[in-house]
Amino acid sequence: MKFNPYTQRLFASNGQLLKQLHCPLQKEWQALGAGGENGARHCDHCSRDVLDSALLSETELRQRLQADPALCLKVEFLQDNIEVIHVDCNG
Known about the structure:
Radius of gyration: 13 Å
């Protein structure tokens, strides 16, 4: 997967947009409560689980996003399954 930190967009390896990341609450991962499956944490403010994308394959993530396009994700620059792409702020 590829991540553009300027636009907060997560892409599949083939360049297809998977998710525009946006959380108006900007909660820290450590501040989230224990969640459900796959290492998820729970946000008490919006009552949604947040999945750690580092624990999911691209195929798993794609399937989950198809089932729930509003899925909340944690993405970090240094995780093994992410390539940070550096493009201008419009790309």
